[in-house]
Design goal:
The complex is a heterodimer.
Chain A: E1 2-5, E2 8-13, H1 32-43, E3 46-52, E4 55-60, H2 61-68, H3 72-80, E5 85-89, E6 95-102, E7 105-112, E8 118-125, H4 126-146, H5 152-164, H6 169-172
Parallel strand pairs in A: 1-8
Antiparallel strand pairs in A: 2-3, 3-4, 5-6, 6-7, 7-8
Helix pairs in contact in A: 1-2, 3-4, 3-5, 4-5
Chain B: E1 4-8, E2 11-22, H1 48-51, H2 54-58, H3 64-74, E3 78-81, H4 85-93, E4 98-104, E5 110-113, E6 119-123, E7 125-130, E8 136-142
Antiparallel strand pairs in B: 1-2, 2-4, 3-5, 4-7, 5-6, 7-8
The chains are: A alpha+beta, B alpha+beta.
């Protein structure tokens, strides 16, 4: 295992067609807020690159991030409480990212499935990983606010669990 | 290979692989609803809450050129269901735990568009990803060589 790898999550401009589909809610199951977010993911779609060590994957706000978004604030809270989480992307690529806290570190395992399968493990600083996830959550939601898809109040309420239950330095400093 | 035979009504299927995240809580249709708001309409294939992107990205009515384009842009296979009722059946047949599964219906359930432009017809297997609230995050037909693990068997917490 290698030491102190850095997890980076970044938004990049999408300049090619990924044949994404517009959000639908034929049964009226989603709130205005939820549909606003889904419209944002589709209409202002971006590449989202996840990097660690020499590995990089590219997913997209729509469909990939849209599918994990509801759970992400709660998953960040779980990591800050020392619980392990998994994030799986199965639409634009087939990767599971497992994050397992261990003291001040987080063991980050990337598991590729599909035709070829492999696992790679990276040891990361716990605060750095939490910061990367929280910064990503905040950046995307602020973009949705700036573009008029959701309100600032809706954003703050949505991201609150990711910042609410932790004793880690990133939260205490806020 | 890890195979779990399942028989439900007249349907016979096999769980070829599974990677269970949490086997302590049963979730999905027929279980207590733990997700947000009201319980989704499990028996309605158009339920976006229960089946999210499955119909819009992998449904039988999506046009072929959308699959071809998406297979090329992602450089990965794109599966299409032949019948919307089958992702309801998949939800009922895979274990009631959050995780990833490959299920074999032992009958044709879809086709797979490959990045090189070729198509594999009449595939019998599907990849299913069940979220912690029991809903399906993803679900699409796959060819037999798709696997969840490098060991090509169960690596779940069973």
């Amino acid at each position: 295992m290698n030491n102190s790898y850095k997890l980076e999550i970044g938004l990049e401009k999408l300049n090619f067609d990924i044949y994404a589909e517009p959000p639908e809610d034929p049964l009226g199951e989603f709130s205005d807020f939820e549909m606003g977010l889904r419209r944002f993911f589709f209409e202002d779609n971006h590449v989202v690159s996840w990097k660690i060590g020499g590995e990089k994957i590219q997913v997209f706000l729509e469909p990939d991030i849209c599918l994990i978004w509801d759970r992400l604030p709660f998953q960040i809270a779980e990591i800050s409480q020392g619980k392990k989480i998994e994030i799986t992307f199965a639409e634009s690529c087939c990767i599971t990212i497992k994050l397992v806290p261990a003291g001040n570190k987080i063991n980050c395992t990337w598991i590729k499935f599909g035709y070829s399968c492999w696992e790679k493990e990276f040891e990361c600083d716990r605060t750095q990983v939490l910061d990367a996830l929280r910064d990503f959550l905040e950046e995307v939601m602020q973009l949705a606010v700036d573009k008029g898809y959701i309100t600032l109040e809706e954003k703050e309420e949505f991201i609150r669990p990711a910042f609410a239950s932790s004793t880690d330095a990133a939260v205490l400093s806020k | 290979m890890y195979v779990v035979p399942i028989k439900k009504n007249t349907e016979v299927a096999e769980i070829i692989e599974q990677d269970i995240i949490d086997s302590s809580v049963e979730v999905g249709s027929g279980c207590e609803w733990t997700g947000r708001g009201t319980e989704p309409q499990w028996n309605n294939p158009k339920s976006t809450k229960a089946y999210d992107h499955i119909e819009s990205y992998h449904g039988p009515k999506r046009k072929a050129n959308r699959f071809v384009g998406r297979a090329a842009s992602t450089n990965d296979d794109q599966g299409q269901w032949l019948n919307a009722e089958d992702w309801i059946m998949a939800e009922q047949l895979v274990p009631k735990y959050s995780g990833k599964y490959i299920i074999d219906f032992q009958r044709p359930i879809g086709r797979v568009y490959h990045p090189d432009g070729t198509i594999t017809e009449n595939v019998s297997r599907a990849f299913i990803q069940r979220d912690v609230d029991g809903t399906l995050n993803s679900g699409y037909p796959v060819v037999n060589s798709r696997t969840l693990s490098r060991f090509n068997g169960s690596n779940g917490n069973e």
